[in-house]
Amino acid sequence: EVQLLESGGDLVQPGGSLRLSCAASGFTFSSSAMSWVRQAPGKGLEWVASTSGSGDSTDYADSVKGRFTISRDNSKNTLYLQINTLGDEDTALYFCAKHGGPQVYSYFDLWGRGTLVIVSS
Amino acid sequence: DIQMTQSPSTLSASVGDRVTITCRASHSIGSWLAWYQQKPGKAPKLLIYKASSLESGVPSSFSGSGSGTEFTLTISSLQPDDFATYYCQQYYSYSNFGQGTKVEIK
To answer: What is the mean pLDDT of each run of 10 residues along chain A (121 residues)?
Structure first.
């Protein structure tokens, strides 16, 4: 079955760190560019970060640049998002998404169900 | 940065209505635009990519058009399953979404 399964979301104190994971199955993961997209409670969608299939090329939204790191382990078919210096504005449901094309910027044709990050003291 | 503006923010319609949602980009993005449907508590679902290409498995009642800075998503005959929130996304430069259009029952 073609699917993405996120994990790692948690309740974290401000200033804390977290690593999110996304396990992929049912498609050739190493050939697929991937992204993280987040959605704050009751709000719209915000693209966070993207990586190429090889992991050599990455890019980030200005709102997270310098604090978030996207990476992947193609041997494990897994995408990661390291989140540091968490603030209230990072509270959101974090989705991983597969790109429809090989470019770092693309539409997303497969989404996971999301993992919830809550930043609160 | 390219800003995406959807209108309207909320749309009240009845089953069988023809519905049109507009998305405007602050700079030309060619045809690098996608549309998604999202229901409460669920992940977004791809409907349209490259402005007018219908994703496999999506009903033909959905269609997209436009290029440059103005785009539309049309639902030709609204069905009960279509009441949801719709987002446009540009992927010409970086990637970002419109603020969403909620289609609710009239």
So the answer is: 97 97 97 97 97 94 96 98 97 98 90 97 93
